[in-house]
Each structure stands twice: as C-alpha cells, then as structure tokens.
Design goal:
single chain; mainly alpha
Length: 207
C-alpha cells in the first residue's frame, strides 16, 4: 500500500532524528533532516552540521545550497552547488540542480553547458532533456528545442510528438493562442502514459 506523501515525510523525519540520536556523526541523517524540515532556520543549522561532518558528501552540499537559495543568498548557494558538482560530477540530481540555479540567475550559457554534459553521460535521464528543452524554448533557440524535444518525446515513448505546439507557444505568431488553448486542454496527470501529449511535467514559467 502506498503511504501518503505527508505521512511518509513525517516518518522519514522521525527515522532521521532517531538515526542522528544513535550516531551524532551520521552525515546522512543530518542531511536527511535538512530536507525533511519546513523551517529554514532549522534547515540551515542541519545543513551547516552536515557539511561540517561530511565535507566530502555531495548531497549535504547540495541541500545546503538549496537552503541558501531559499533564503535568498544566491551567491553562496552557487558556491555550494558547484562544490557538490565537483564532489560528484556524474550525480544526476546534483547536475540538474546546478543547472536550475544557473537558469534562475539567467546564466543560460552555463546552464546549457551543465545540462549537455548531464545528458551526455545520462542519456536516459528525461528530466535533464526536459529542462534543456524548456531552456531552449525560453531563450528562443527553436531549432535546438526541436532537436531536444524530439529526443524527449522518443525517450518518454509518446505516441504523438507535440514539439511544435511548444514552439508555437513561445513564438510571436498567431499560432501562439492556438498553442495556449491546446496546452490547457491536455491532462495534467498520467505523466508516464504514452498517450499523454505533454512533454514538460511542470509549468514552463518556473524556469
């Protein structure tokens, strides 16, 4: 039976607290408490503790970076994301989140560089292709968007390829409103269903 997310979250936090009580030097437990807390001050305290205990542990640096970004310290967050990436350069989530940070800063060139490297060693990582596709749409690189979107549609096993709808959405032609109408009619659930026409799992405006 699937456990509801909220319940699983509470259980994970409780387990991490017990693990840290049993082993106060457990960097994994301290790191788990960063992302199971909903209080930024508490997250920051656990993050500092985790990276102090395990300066070699990329996941701790990544969550420290995430906490710093949430607190608005984007420069320090970037430093921590880069350190996490240096420690584990082939970790998919670490590379993904570094690229996301670059995108939030409007640094499209470095975001593209990180994402292209990510999908080169993890060609089956749909989330990496999706973020790259979204970036090319946002920056108006429609030919690159088409190439990446085709790969994404194939990777997701989509029965229809709707790359052009997304390109129309970001163009300045009269096709834009048609694209908006079509996108809003698509289902938001069943992401892995091949009949789902969506190529992007979340709102493009989040970039």
């Amino acid at each position: 039976t699937d456990i509801p997310f909220a319940e699983a979250f509470v259980e994970a936090r409780s387990a991490a607290q017990k693990a840290l009580a049993l082993d106060p030097e457990s960097v994994e437990a301290a790191t788990a408490l960063i992302y199971t807390s909903n209080d930024l001050t508490e997250q920051l305290a656990y993050a500092k503790r985790a990276v102090a205990m395990g300066p070699w542990f990329a996941t701790a640096h990544q969550w420290y970076a995430t906490t710093l970004a949430l607190m608005g310290d984007m420069d320090s967050a970037r430093t921590e994301f880069l350190l996490a990436h240096e420690l584990d350069p082939k970790a998919r989530v670490v590379g993904h989140n570094l690229a996301n940070h670059y995108q939030l800063e409007g640094n499209w060139a470095d975001a593209e560089r990180v994402l292209l490297r990510l999908v080169s060693y993890a060609p089956d990582y749909a989330a990496g292709w999706e973020r790259l596709f979204s970036q090319y749409l946002r920056t108006g690189d429609f030919e690159k968007a088409r190439q990446v979107g085709d790969k994404l549609a194939a990777l997701l096993g989509r029965n229809t390829n709707n790359v052009q709808v997304y390109i129309d959405l970001f163009s300045s032609t009269e096709a834009k409103q048609v694209a908006v109408d079509e996108l809003t009619s698509w289902p938001t659930s069943g992401w892995w269903n091949p009949d789902n026409p969506n190529l992007v799992s979340g709102p493009l405006v989040l970039l």
